[in-house]
Amino acid sequence: MSSDKKKIRFRHSIRVQLACIFILALVLVVVSSFAINRFFLQDYYVKNKTLRLERIYAQIDSVSGTGEDGNEAFAEECGRLVNDNNISAVVVNSSFEIRYSSENRSDLLISRLVWHILSNDEKKAPITGEDDGREREERPAHPEKILRQTDDYAMAITNDPMVSSQYIELWGILGSGDLIFMRTPLESIRENVSIANTFLFYIMAGCAAIGIVIIWFLSKKITDPVLELTEVADRMAHLDFDAGYEAKGKNEIDELGEHINELSVKLRQTMSDLQTANNELKKDIEKKEELENMRMEFVSNVSHELKTPIALIQGYAEGLKDNISSDEESRNFYCEVIMDEADRMNKMVKNLLTLNRLEFGNEEIKLERINLTELVKNCMTSSDIILKQYGACATMETVDNIYAWGDEFLVEEVFMNLFSNAVHYCSQEKRIEVSVKETGDKVRVNVFNTGTPIPEDAIPHIWEKFYKVDKARSREVGGTGIGLSIVKAVMDSLNNDCGVVNYDNGVAFYFELNKA
After folding, report:
1. I need a labelling partner for 219 at 20 to 30 A (CA). Which of 203, 227, 411, 417 fits?
2. Letter string b/e over residues 418-441, b meaning 16 or more CB atoms within 10 A of that residue's CB
């Protein structure tokens, strides 16, 4: 795969997509958290301080009703509340006499209390509710943000012009009739918020960096099995069913991998079955073609072989009918020709039927232990008339009885075909030699006849139906060209060998059987 394709595949890989999704989600969470902290933390602090000031007000109000004897306990409780919450506070009675102050300069706090009382927009009078009837000059109100206002107290974010700072301030009246003023600097809140935001930024940036690295490696751990499954599927798509997924856990991907392994096994078995079926189909097609060729060849050969005897029979029969020869000797000759040709046709048909049964497996094979020596002797004895007719001499080496496994009828037919072939084609000395010998676990029957050797280029074809080396000679001796085909078919059905060997002075045919 080229580098460009690898880059494209990497950019579109599930690992990159998964990592980008998680990283984007992480960045959104970090940015959102920082933005929320940046814009809402101060308001949260202010609200928290507001609630705290209200709580302190309520606690001071609950202990403000003690008389002069309890003033020390009141001041002690106020000091504890103020110090614990880092606020400034002053409590005065209606005559502005100090009951408690957290600051050395109480006048600053009292002045702020007075300012708030005098700048009350709704009553235009001190929060005590007493109106002295004097007109008050209008004072410019300092910028402030009212946070809470009730009948007893009010809270606001204000600017103190004396110190140029902003505070969260609470002023009001207690149940005892005393006036109270509390405040906490807003600048400290802002400083805390700034420090918290800065700290949070570094923490989130660090966490984001670590998270990106972790996400990248985790995405690899998640996507590696997917990539492995992709490779397995790709190999299966190219008919490589040896590929398999090695499960490393029990999650959904591993379960999918196991299913793909099962699919691979089933596909391999299916492909094997298909290959087997395909081979069988090819064999059937080849066999059908072979049978068709054999049929056409058979029809052609039979037509050719029968054409001559039929013509002779027809010609001589017509001659007899037309009384071409009136003498008895001529008529007998015509009848003998007709009978010889009819006999030849009869033999041909019988041989063809036998060969057909053997080639198509319709001949029942019955294996038995036969005395091969005795069988050969008997066949030679029954052929004395043929030997005398052709003036040939047949001898057999004297041996003890030799036994072999075979079908006696078929073995006899094989020997008689070879022996008849030897008699018909015997020439020169007209000598035939037969031998039965044991060779290992086989028994070989050899039939030799003197005469002209078979041409080497014709030897591969002599077992074919209707093949004749010397057609004129075959016609003369009455051969049909089927005998050796029957020999070959019988030996194939017995799963044994047969063959021919050329010698300088003749030819030897042989066949073998399993020794019994």
Report:
1. 203
2. bbbbbbbbbeeebbbbbbbeeeee
